[in-house]
Amino acid sequence: MKTFSELTLDExxxxxxxxxxxxxxxxxxxxYLIDTLKVGGVILFTRNIESPEQVKELADALQGxxxxxxxxxxxxxxxxxxxxxxxxxxxxxxxPEGAPALNTVEAAQHFGRxxxxxxxxxxxxxxxxxxxxxxPDGFSGVMEKRVFPGAPEDVGTLGVQVMAxxxxxGVLSVVKHFPGIGRTTLDSxxxxxxxxxxxxxxxxxxxxxxxxxxxxxxxxxxxxHIRYTDIDREWNASLSPEIVKGLLRGRMGYNGVVMxxxxxxKAITCDMETAARQIFLSDVDIALICHRSDRYETxxxxxxxxxxxxxxxxxxxxxxxxxxxxxx
Length: 328
Prior knowledge:
single chain, alpha/beta, TIM Barrel, 8-stranded parallel beta sheet, two-stranded antiparallel ribbon
């Protein structure tokens, strides 16, 4: 695999893009995303999936085309949490109740191992899981059907088991949604939720599972789109220097790959140029955007301009991404 210095600036910038697409095969637009935008990864949704055999054929075609363009291997990602968020269906193993039913270490290991084997077998090398959000006792929020049961310590223990078992089978785990959305009732797909929970309270509960995962060597973390007003009153977490550079990387010492949640969500109220600048200034490595539009080009152009302005931090981010690709 090429090193950072062997990549052109356009290839370096492309590594920071993880994108969705339309279709179920290697289309002309997908080729363009790889050979021209030089994206570092793709994410599949139900619209891209017909069968395990078709997914494997698509994944192989994607990786083959990236290699023919002289690019590093692609992240081929999917949301496979089990329960209400599981893009791959039968004949793969279905865990209909998802994380709420994974209430023992053995259950978490079985999910992680089974999911890792099956995802790897059809060409995926990244799973946007596990969810490490904590739902307080007696609270009914937007994440109710997606969180592990129990106290923050239990969530951390179960999440790390899923994470480790996925990665043992060759599938990178992305823990989410930092710094925690278990207390929210509004959906960031539809609006910009705000959370006024005091920082000390977040530290004593919501952040504990993430700290456990970081201590266990979490490969990557996804940020939430929530605005945590006691930490940063201006920016939501995915665009916040206070949360990413200050809290995640500074106070908690995390030096792995950090990515946004989907920038198509309604919680992102600024334009894509502003979002790209904030991603760069916040020390976020990867911009995730899941629906094809000209915003892909806008992100790439703005990230390139920022990379030319701040080459040092850009090199560190791309270095993290390439190091993660070395794992697979």
